[in-house]
């Protein structure tokens, strides 16, 4: 009888307490949670009319709180970590027992709702985070994120500061996720990421996959503005902070590829404004991108790329294609202005780009890219584009090498390699290029009046082997060393050019009255030597039936000073010929063309002119800069004649 009374009393008390909501458990629960988590925990506020604490234990755990507060860790200056109003939590005992009994399993929460949620989330540079509680190891593997039958927040505000990501963000959100037809997450956030202003607008079907480690991706519509760069993405994604899984379409635009690459953790070159779109897939540290359309400055490109960031040295591989690549659009990578409209005059008056290379970016990753461009615009109004251009770009431990170059222009072709070694503070540059069969009249787009013949014709062969070193393009060219040789076969040149160069007034006036004609070039050859940044012609001669044109002097790539002398030795007589050397002085920025002051023709010009003929001309017939062909014997004969005549004139004087 006594036992029955005790049982009845207990049962009655449980029913009464269940109806009351077990209010006397609030304070003990606060103390127990506070001691366990080593944080301040508030479940009731006596001075608040919404301080209701109601707990139901029959059939499951159901907790309703008018107010809830979880304190921030001791190292944080935030007033709290999480604060909520009108919070509801529902748990089934079966789920709770399964979670307690199975290591590594996720706790299933039937319902978690809040009318208002305010949170301060922080992570320090050493890895400590506000969501790590007493007994947590910052380096230990995170426990599975709970699953929810219903997760809903009417109004939320989250302030997130992450020293490891250099991210400071303030987000407003609303969420309705779980067993409901209106599943939706909307987030609007503003802040700073790596010193740049950041704005985010996100719409998705929920939040849990965004915080879970191994969750399945969910539909996402994301728009991000970082500084002046913009990203729009629509597809599937997971892991909000690291975006470890992505797949969908994207559009990215900004003032430079480098700014977008910095935001994504990828090293990209400086470029003019760009806009790209295509398909993107990311799985952990591997990115796969199919650029269906990429506009960079005036270039039109596309390609497929894979970036593997989990290697000892990140690796970018792929194929770069496109209908047009304008060389000026890559100018900023070597310190050149972004475009003509944005050029700023160098206060020093220099022409060559002197902006230092970003050599650390060359060491940040490796690359293996195949290049297949339909049209490479050299950025010159005179020189014709290369159509097409194929090459192999390799970037290995700071050494950038473009090899297997195969380019065609004006019915000719170019082959070779260019290399920039950026492993040290001073870059080492090397070029080895060869060109064959380039038709000058097609390659040099120099406008002439209707029916007038081209200034130059012929097939040009040659090669360039050059080296240099420095921290900018100007420094490399200022230390230039090597050889450039080129020869024109079966060529002609304008009569007006040769007579103007020789300042033969009578011949030039005759050309103007009767019209220009062409002169066969019996020998056209240039052998240029570069030493310590000074480019000098060992031999630079064009020989025709009318005259021979010689160029001597030098161009300093270090100081940009010009010191050239052009001399024409005639084979005919003209009563109005000055026949005095033409001087090109000044600098690349301000060239000065004038006549050499001194004796004119008819006085001692013969001795002066003949003494200027380069004694190395005797070597011309024995030097070939291209592949032998049927015209070679005729070309060599012309050069032999020139060498013989030059030698005879030197011996005579």
From TrEMBL:
InterPro entries: AsmA, AsmA-related. Residues 627-653 are annotated as: Disordered. The lineage of its organism: Bacteria, Pseudomonadati, Pseudomonadota, Betaproteobacteria, Burkholderiales. This is AsmA family protein. Pfam families: AsmA. Coiled coil: none annotated. Residues 55-537 form the AsmA domain. It comes from the Bacteria.
């Amino acid at each position: 009888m006594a036992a029955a009374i005790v049982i009845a009393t207990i049962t009655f008390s449980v029913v009464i307490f269940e109806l009351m909501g077990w209010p006397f458990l609030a304070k003990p629960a606060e103390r127990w949670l506070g001691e366990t988590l080593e944080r301040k925990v508030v479940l009731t506020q006596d001075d608040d009319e919404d301080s209701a604490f109601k707990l139901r234990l029959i059939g499951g755990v159901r907790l309703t709180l008018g107010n809830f507060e979880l304190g921030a860790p001791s190292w944080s200056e935030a007033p709290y970590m999480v604060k909520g109003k009108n919070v509801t939590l529902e748990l089934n005992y079966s789920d709770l027992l399964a979670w307690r009994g199975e290591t590594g399993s996720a706790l299933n929460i039937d319902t978690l709702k809040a009318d208002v949620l305010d949170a301060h989330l922080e992570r320090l540079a050493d890895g400590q985070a506000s969501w790590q509680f007493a007994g947590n190891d910052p380096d230990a593997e995170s426990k599975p994120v709970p699953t929810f039958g219903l997760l809903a927040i009417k109004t939320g505000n989250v302030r997130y500061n992450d020293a490891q990501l250099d991210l400071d963000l303030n987000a407003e959100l609303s969420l309705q996720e779980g067993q409901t037809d209106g599943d939706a997450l909307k987030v609007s956030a503003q802040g700073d990421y790596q010193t740049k202003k950041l704005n985010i607008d996100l719409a998705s079907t929920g939040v849990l996959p965004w915080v879970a480690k191994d969750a399945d991706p969910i539909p996402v519509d994301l728009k991000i503005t970082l500084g002046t760069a913009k990203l729009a993405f629509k597809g599937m994604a997971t892991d909000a902070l690291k975006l470890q899984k992505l797949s969908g379409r994207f559009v990215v635009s900004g003032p430079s590829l480098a700014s977008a690459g910095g935001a994504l953790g990828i090293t990209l070159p400086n470029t003019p404004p760009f806009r790209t779109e295509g398909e993107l897939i990311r799985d952990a540290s591997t990115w796969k991108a199919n650029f269906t359309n990429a506009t960079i400055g005036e270039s039109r490109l596309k390609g497929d790329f894979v970036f593997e960031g989990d290697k000892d040295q990140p690796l970018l591989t792929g194929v770069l294609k496109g209908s047009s690549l304008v060389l000026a659009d890559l100018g900023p990578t070597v310190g050149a202005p972004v475009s003509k409209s944005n050029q700023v005059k160098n206060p020093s008056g220099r022409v060559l780009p002197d902006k230092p290379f970003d050599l650390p970016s060359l060491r940040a990753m490796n690359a293996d890219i195949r290049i297949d461009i339909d049209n490479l615009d050299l950025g010159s109004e005179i020189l014709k584009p290369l159509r097409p251009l194929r090459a192999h770009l390799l970037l290995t431990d700071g050494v950038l090498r473009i090899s297997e170059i195969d380019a065609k222009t004006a019915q000719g072709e170019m082959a070779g390699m260019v290399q920039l070694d950026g492993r040290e503070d001073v870059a080492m540059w090397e070029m080895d290029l060869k060109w064959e069969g380039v038709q000058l009249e097609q390659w040099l787009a120099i406008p002439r009046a209707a029916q007038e013949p081209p200034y130059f014709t012929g097939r040009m062969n040659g090669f360039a082997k050059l080296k240099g070193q420095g921290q900018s393009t100007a420094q490399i060219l200022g230390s230039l060393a090597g050889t450039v040789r080129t020869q024109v076969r079966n060529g002609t040149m304008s009569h007006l050019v040769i007579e103007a160069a020789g300042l033969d007034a009578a011949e030039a006036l005759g050309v103007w009255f009767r019209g220009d004609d062409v002169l066969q070039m019996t020998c056209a050859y240039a052998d240029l030597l570069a030493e310590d940044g000074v480019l000098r012609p060992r031999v630079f001669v064009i020989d025709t039936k009318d005259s021979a044109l010689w160029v001597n002097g030098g161009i300093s790539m270090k100081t940009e000073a010009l010191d050239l002398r052009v001399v024409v030795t005639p084979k005919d007589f003209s009563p109005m010929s000055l026949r005095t050397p033409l001087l090109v002085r000044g600098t690349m920025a301000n060239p000065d063309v004038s006549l050499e002051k001194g004796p004119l023709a008819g006085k001692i010009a013969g001795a002066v002119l003949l003494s200027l003929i380069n004694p190395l001309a005797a070597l011309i017939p024995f030097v070939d800069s291209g592949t032998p062909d049927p015209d070679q014997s005729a070309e060599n004969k012309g050069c032999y004649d020139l060498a013989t005549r030059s030698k005879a004139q030197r011996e005579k004087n």
